[in-house]
Structures are given as structure tokens and as C-alpha cells.
Amino acid sequence: MNCLVVEWGEEMILIDCGIQFPDASYSGVDLLTPDLAYVKRRIRHLKGVIITHGHDDHIGGIPFLLREKNLDVYCTPFPEGLLRNKLAEYSDLKEITYHRIEPRVSFEVGSFRFDPIPVAHSIIEALGFAMETPIGTIVHTGDFKHDPKELVNGKALSFAPFAEWGDKGVLCLFSDSTNAERMGHTPSELDIATSFERLLGEQTARIFIALFASNIKRIEKIMHIAHRQGKKVALGGRSMHSYTKLAFDQSSLGIPPETLILLEDLDRYPDNQVIILLTGSQAEPQSALVRISQDNHKEVEIKNGDTIILSSRFIPGNERAITQMIDHLYRQGADVLYESFHQVHVSGHGCQDELMMMLEAVKPKCFVPIHGEYRHLAKHAKLARRVGVSEEQIKIIEDGQILEVSKDGLALGEKLELEKGVVVDGLFMAGGRELFTQRAALAKAGIVFLAVFKNARSHKLLADPIIATHGLLYQREINPAEAVLEAEKKAKEAYFKYAKEPDVVERLRIEMRRFFKKRVSYKPIVIPMILEV
Amino acid sequence: MNCLVVEWGEEMILIDCGIQFPDASYSGVDLLTPDLAYVKRRIRHLKGVIITHGHDDHIGGIPFLLREKNLDVYCTPFPEGLLRNKLAEYSDLKEITYHRIEPRVSFEVGSFRFDPIPVAHSIIEALGFAMETPIGTIVHTGDFKHDPKELVNGKALSFAPFAEWGDKGVLCLFSDSTNAERMGHTPSELDIATSFERLLGEQTARIFIALFASNIKRIEKIMHIAHRQGKKVALGGRSMHSYTKLAFDQSSLGIPPETLILLEDLDRYPDNQVIILLTGSQAEPQSALVRISQDNHKEVEIKNGDTIILSSRFIPGNERAITQMIDHLYRQGADVLYESFHQVHVSGHGCQDELMMMLEAVKPKCFVPIHGEYRHLAKHAKLARRVGVSEEQIKIIEDGQILEVSKDGLALGEKLELEKGVVVDGLFMAGGRELFTQRAALAKAGIVFLAVFKNARSHKLLADPIIATHGLLYQREINPAEAVLEAEKKAKEAYFKYAKEPDVVERLRIEMRRFFKKRVSYKPIVIPMILEV
Q: What integer pLDDT is reported at residue A88 of this predicted model?
């Protein structure tokens, strides 16, 4: 979730503070944040938060720091705008003071001096940083790729600034490992433009393109291609509207005149003349494309022959939802193109060649692979060894691992025990892993509650025990109502047997689990409740 | 799950009867079977089950038919052996009469005459069938690819037999759609052998190869490569032992002398001389490789430098488990190679070129794509149109759809409402979709039980209500115990308010949900229980 804490003496800064969307093992959770306990304990030392770019896995966690203390945030206009929009969704937060930063214009925070270096990524205004510290220069790449064809204000973003710092001598490099398993060089954003040029050129029916609303450059390219071909573009989905509006207001998105139309006006134009840009490339339940695929979108329904392009990767964990959405779209007569089989997406992260280029440009004494699962970090570490970084100066660190950086190199410090922060409805919840294990168990076996009402002194039953169950599976031959009656009878017997035992509750639990194991072949969760007067 | 019911008058036959491993939406379920209700209602008409090959998604469902009636099963030796092993795991089943079949030796079942046609697939003895029926010939490909390099008893399996039937005239083709989205031609099993030849040749440490135990040919090739290089092979995992033993006993697996060693003897040989073939390519929880990756396998632990090869695809739904296993293996110092980045697996299913070849060989009047998700069937249907099958003679059918085949072509009949059969511990459970929705809700929101004890006539409370909860998330600031006390107080008030209402239970439920929504920001499942005397 990209929350790098950098400390020097009493000073602390953060580089990014993101969120993550939970996998199924965090049942019922809207978002996950880094475990901010450590940061909050020392928050009075926090001098500022430095933002590499505006993706949610880099800025989404900031609102949860803002409950504690006013923050100084250093970022460019686009992430600032995204943060301002985001904060509007939360209540009673402290204030952010925004420090506007610009590529190659260095600034100081505490004892650190930062040189923001522009990098190519799947969002505008992406930065890496060279950070001058009292013990040497540390380079943090942010998320990056090398894209010589893609121009920003007329010229391509090169690694020259990284090389400059490399020549001056860099103590340690922190570099993006997302694609460390992929050989070669990530294709250019321009290659995609070419695919779209062709696909739109051959267009015979409506084309829907699902992509991340934050991919402003790709959106702009598609709009210009459409314009050149005399076609119209409509936007679908809340974030598609808010992101493009922000980029347009900040004049970082050029929309060709008379290209943009409203979704409700689609039918005024011939099918082979309209392109719809929309959200839902990850099959997010409320997204425009999912609602369309389920035929419950208020303005749009699929026509035979429509083409849907998923201009995105399948983010791990979403595969099933995405392929189910694709099946629904086919059932409605659409054709669906996606990355696995058509060149309709390129990654925003560099592959092995680019990671090597970065390592060779920066020539660091020490190396720390970041931004990836363990296998990506391990592969990236191998690459660093290939360019001559010595084994003991490479550290693969996971969440909570403290890394001590000195002039001589890296040493592992204490490892903090971290729990991910779980958020429901914008509120922080206290939910350690074991709670989610408990929830998973509920879903696996169902639950049985047993209520026994007794006299506190004589232990006499004042009514027959009653049982309620939820989520229980029964064998085909079994009648659930009868099974529950049986269970209540069984519970009564068990109570008489153990009424006077100190551990009567536990005994009842065990007896009931045994009973259900016999009856339904597995043990549900059983919770006895004893009322007494 | 490959259970094709074919009926003619009063006769019924089945082609395959498989199982499927449930995704997370079937919480707590071990396996899924086809909904066999329709078949069971008419089981006295069942003349036989014809097996294309021994994969579980083709034979795994047969034990669940065997509760009803003795069955006649038509298959080759390998699937027969697998079935016999499988049935040993179930109790009180009826009998199977096995009818041994051979490639190109035709046999009759009821009014149907079958010509078994050998096909290349990722398991030995795979068959397609030409089925002569009273109204014309129907061709069923089974699972197939076209693999001209791979020899079976000295010669490659060609599509010639399919072409013969095509020349005689085929009414309808049912063909495998698994890879209908993939362009080109599936690589040969021999190409994999070449990769392994190289990988084993360069071996510097132990090599673990995880693959399906049913892929006997691949296992045999690896053993021979190891033998030629003077190396030893050990087997890990229950099914790896049982499948190879069966194939060896049936002399369809040649094991080179002195190649096989026991897992516990690994350390007697130099690391660069041992290969371990094991289960777990899908990160099945109890599999050898998963236990090794978690460092709780009794004989094997990972050494620095070990190479693990996943010679399999990531089956959709397993991606997360597999990548987590890979991360664990890296943490222990292993390197992991898998399909996405290394040529260590080829599919057993044909890509678009091969599907076109089959269509052109059979030249069917009608076409039904089978074996795939809807998107695969839709793509396959497009291919059939390309080779000239007319639009109205192509039907995409989903589970439960009755298809009426006549001399003139295809017509859609009634669509049966099917539920998948859910199996826990080898027992059929009555679990419709809504039950699993209920279980998912449990995991999402947790559950609250409320017990109220009252006088049946006066409605007076005989004790304070008590509440038990499970799987509830609380905000960081909240003390759960206090929240429950509050809830009990709230419940008492609510009871007094509604005691005399007929819908008091529902009222209590709503009040409690409101309370928790306020308290913890989401509504748990609430189940009030009223005891009365």
C-alpha cells in the first residue's frame, strides 16, 4: 500500500500513503489501509507526506492520517485535486496544507532535500525522487516505465536525471518491482493508440472502452482519434466524470471540440460513430460496465454487435468477477476484446530491461526492491545482483520491517507486528486477522445458537432449550425442522447431564457439535447462551 | 461439468459425468456435481455412461449416480482404473458393469452405435466419438488438441477418422471450446519435453516439478529425460503415487530402471541429480507442494537454490492461492518457474486453428460448441460460421437447455431450472444458491442472536434479554462488551414497546439492526428467539 516511513533523528516523513482493495479473506471490508499505529504514535514528528502520483494505492490512505493532525502534503496539481475530491467524502478531518511541487524543482522537508524527477506511468504527473539525506542520496523511483515514444510537453521522459544522480553517487535505490518477472521492455502507450486507431477505423457498431479514469493520457488519445475520424465520445461512470473534469479544469486534458456527447444522446448518432469510455474494467460491482452487463443501467443497454474493449489488466483477485462480466456481455450479443488476446492495454510499469536501465543509471551502493509481491521483489533483487550490487547490500523487506541505512550500507532492524487497517463505510474498524478467520468459518459451516433458561440456584430448566441456526447445510434426505427439534431434545438431555458442571457451557457446545457432525456430516459453530434467574 | 444427456424415445445415455471444484461462492463445499435430478427421475431408461477420458471433470460425478442404480459404463482401461480407485472412497454404492472399449472398435448402446476415435489430450486414452443415431451421425470430440509431433504407439493421432465421418455426412458436431479465444495452434507436448531436457541439463540444484498426476505422458517423458541424464526421480503426493501406479500396472507408463527413488532418500543423492514430481500445481491446501511451501512437509524442506517448476496453467479461481504459494517458496530461497514466463506447460486443448481443422474435417450440418464458459462457446460459434455452418444451425446452449436434434437441424426445447449438486464429505447436501448467499452475508456482516424469555399469556419478561454475537466488527473506539450491554438494554426497551404486537419478532429484528447500524456502521444479521412459558 506504499507507505514508506523515513526517519532521521526526531524527524519523520512519509512517501505516499495508499489503500488497497481487500480480497475475499477480508469479508465485508470496503478498504484496507496500512497499519498506521506506528506513524500515529510518532505523528508529532511527521514533517510531511511526499506524493509520487495520484493512484489510490499511493494517496488513498491520507484521510485516515488526517484524523490525528494537520498535515503538510507535497504534491503536484493532479494528485492535489484528487485528494481534495477524496477528502470531501469524509467528515471531521484535520487540515491539509498543500505544498505545490514541480518536476526538477527541488524542495526541502526537514533535513531532507528532494529533487522530483518526472517518470512515465499510467497517470499524469508521476514522479520519482532523489532524496538528499545527511548520510547520502537515496533514490525512490515511484511507479515507472521507460516510454521513449510517449511525449510529455513535446518530449519523452528519459532516465537522464536518474543518471545525473547516479554519477554524483547514490547510497541506496528503492525501485518499482511490479513487472520484475516480465522479460523485455513494456510496450509504449503509443502502441495502444495505434491499436485504437485501427479498431476505431474498422468500427461497424458501438465501441465501449473500459479503462481506469486516472489514465488521462489514454483517454485524451482516444478522444483525439475519435475526433480525427469524425466520431463522438460519451463518458460513463462516476469516476470517469470526476477524473476527466479535474484534468480538464487543470488543462492537462485536451478535449477536441464537439467530440464529447452525453450518454443519453447516444442514439442520436449512428452506431459506428460513437465510442463510450467508461469505468468497470475490474468489474467493480457498482461500475457502469457491470450494470450494463447485467442489463440494469438506466441509459445504456447492449445491442447485438456492440464491441466492448477492456483496456486494462485483470488485477489479481478480480479475474473471476471480470470473466463473469465478460460472459454476461457475450450473452447479450456483444463481442469483448481484452489484454490476453488483443493489444488493448499496456502496463504502466517497467519490465526487466527497464529495471536494469534504472539500476545502471543510478548505480546504487545499496538496493531495496519495492512495490510488488515477494516473488517480484526476489526477482528484482536478482536483477540488481546482475548489475553488480553486492548480495549483502540488497535487502528484501516486507511490511513492518525496519531498515537501518548508514553510510556503510543496509542493516535489518526490528520487525513491527502489523495488522492491516480495515475500513467500513469510511470508519476504521478493529479487526485483526483472527476476526476474519472467524467470519470465514461462519461462511464455511454456518452457526447454531442454543438458548437455555434455568434457575440460577437449583439449575432447574425453566423452559425447554431452543435452537436457532443460520447458514446450515443439510443432507438431501434430512428435514431441517425435524433436525432442529432433535437437536433441542439432544440439548435438553445434555443439559441434564452437565447442569451442575462448572463448564456446562463448553459441554453443551461440544455435545451440539457432535450431534450436528453426525446429522449433517460437519461441525457448525455452536454458541450456547444461558439465561438464569 | 460435462454431463451430456442423449435421449431417443425411451432410451437415455450419458456422455461423461464430471465434477467441479467449487469457487469461493460455494463456501464450505468440497465438490460440485451436475444437477442429476433429471437423470435420476428417468434413471430406469439409462442404458449406459460413455466416458471420453479419465479427468475428474468427466468421471468424478459417477459415484453420485451409483446411489440409485447399477450402471453400465463404457470406457478404456485407464479411466476404469481411476473409477475403481474412486469408488473405494465411497460407501453403499450400487455396482458398475464395465464395458471395455478400444479406439476404432465400434460398439452399440441401445439404438446408438459408437466409433471411439483417439484424440490427443493431457491424459492418456482420450477419445472422441462418432455416434450413429437413427436420424444421423453426431460427432462428439471430447477434449482434444492436434499434436502431430506427439506419438501414441509410434504414430501421431490425426483427424483422419473425423474426416472419414465428415465425408459420410455428419448431422451435428459437439466440439471442445476451452481454447476458442486463443489464436494459432497449441504447442506440442514434445516442445515441453524439449524445455525440460534443457532445464534438467542446466540443473545445479534440486528441481521440483508440480503437475497433474493424470498427465502420464509428461511424467513418463520427464522420467526418461532424467534417466538419460543419469538422474533420479522421486514422487510426492497421494494422487501422484496412485495415478502413476495405476498407469504402470496397466503398462501405459514406462519407468526406466533405477530412476525412481523414495522421497525420504533424496539426501542420498547430489542436489543436481534429483528431480521431484509432485502434486500441488493448483495450490490445493493438502497437496505436497503447498505443505512444502509452508515448511510443514514431513520429508522435504526447501533448500536455498531449489527450483520449483509449475508445469500447469493457473486454473481460474486458484490464482491467488497459487501466487501466495509461489511467494512462500521464494521466501524460503527457492526460484519458481511457471507458464506465464517460461515454456513449462502446454494446454491439452486445441486453439482456433485446431478447432477450424476439426470443423473442416467433420463438415457438420449443425454445430454445438461445448466445454467452456459462455465467451468460449460464443467465439467457437463464430469460427463455425467462418467455415460455413449456417447461423440458425449453430446453437449455444448452457446447463439445463434441452436441444432437439432432427434430420432438419437443431431447435431449442425447454430449459430446465438446475441447481448444482453440492457435496460435503462425500454426501449430497440440499443447498440452493440462496443458502450460499446467506452464508456469504454471514461472513460479510456477522450475526447477532437475541434471546427473550417471556410469559406466553401476560407477555411479561421473565428475564432480561441476552445477546450473543459472532463475527462482528467494531469501530476502534468501541468496547464490544459495552456495546452488547447497550444492545441488550435497547432490546429490552424495544420488547416493552412491541411485546403485544403480532410481529414482535420482526420488530425486534429491525430495532436491533438499526441499533448496530448506528453503533458499528453496518447492519449485521439479527435473529431474535423468543422462549415462552
A: 92
φ, ψ of residue A109 to 5 degrees: the values are: -135, 115
Distance between CA A343 and CA A337 in Å, rounded? 9
Give B518→chain A minimum CA distance, Å: 12
Residue A182 touches chain B, beta carbons under 8 Å:
yes
| Cβ <8 Å between B462 and A453 | yes
How far is Cα A102 from Cα A82, in angstroms, rounded to an integer?
17
A321 to chain B: closest CA residue:
B317
C-alpha cell at A256: 477536441
Can you tell me the distance from the alpha carbon of A407 to that of A404, in angstroms, rounded to the nearest whole number?
10
Q: Which of A473, A476, A509, A525 to mutate to test the interface with B (most CBs of B within 10 A)?
A: A473
This prediction has a pTM of 0.93
A24 by Cβ neighbours in 10 Å (0-12 / 13-18 / 19+) ranks as middle
Stretches where chain B sits below pLDDT 50 are none
pLDDT at residue A168 in the model: 98
Confidence (pLDDT) at A430:
83
Average pLDDT, chain A: 95
Contact A475 B331 (CB under 8 A): no
Question: What pLDDT was estimated at residue B396?
Answer: 98
Contact (CB<8Å) A181/B439: no
The three grid cell numbers given for residue B483, joined into one nine-digit string? 456495546
Does B425 touch chain A if contact means CB atoms closer than 8 Å? Answer: yes
Return the H-helix or E-strand segment holding A162: helix A160-168
Nearest partner of B366 among B404, B414, B400, B416, judged by Cα: B404
Please indicate if any CB of chain B lies within 8 Å of the CB of A156.
no
Which chain B residue lies closest to A330 (C-alpha atoms)? B375
**A125, amino acid identity:** E
Contact assessment for residue A389 and residue A382, using Cβ atoms and an 8 Å cutoff: no
Give residues with Cβ within 8 angstroms of B91, minimum separation 6: none
CA-CA-CA-CA dihedral for B31, B32, B38, B44, to nearest 10? -30
Residue A433: per-residue pLDDT = 85
- Closest partner residue to B430 (CB to CB) among A462, A466, A475 is A475
Given a contact cutoff of 8 angstroms between Cβ atoms, the answer to whether A416 and A402 are in contact is yes
Place of cell 436441444: B403
The CA-based angle B136-B137-B142, given to 5 degrees, is 150
pLDDT tens-digit profile of B418-434? 989 999 988 888 878 88
- Residue A261 C-beta-side C-alpha neighbours within 13 Å: 18
Helix (H, G, I), strand (E, B) or coil at A359: helix
Q: Which of residues 293-332 of A touch B (CB under 8 A)?
A: 316-317, 319-320, 323, 326-327, 330-331
Query: Chain A partners of B447 at a C-beta cutoff of 8 Å?
Result: 442, 447, 470
Nine cell digits for residue A59: 494517496
Crossing angle between the packed helical segments A189-201 and A216-228, to the nearest 10 degrees: 30
- DSSP state, B188? P
Out of B317, B475, B532, whose CB is closest to A428?
A: B475
**Residue B380 in 3-state DSSP?**
helix
- Positive or negative, the CA dihedral B272, B278, B284, B286 is negative
Answer yes or no: do A468 and B521 touch at CB < 8 A.
no
Nearest CA in chain B to A29: B444
Selecting from B23, B326, B336 the residue whose C-beta is nearest the C-beta of A320 gives B23
Q: What is the pLDDT of residue B447?
A: 96
Q: Identify the helix (H) or strand (E) that includes residue B334.
A: none
Catalogue all structural domains in chain A, each as residue range(s) with its CATH number: 4-184+347-425 (3.60.15.10), 189-338 (3.40.50.10710), 433-532 (3.10.20.580)
Q: Tell me which amino acid residue B501 is.
A: E
Contacts of A458 (CB under 8 A, 6+ apart): none
Question: φ and ψ at A484, to 5 degrees?
Answer: -70, -40
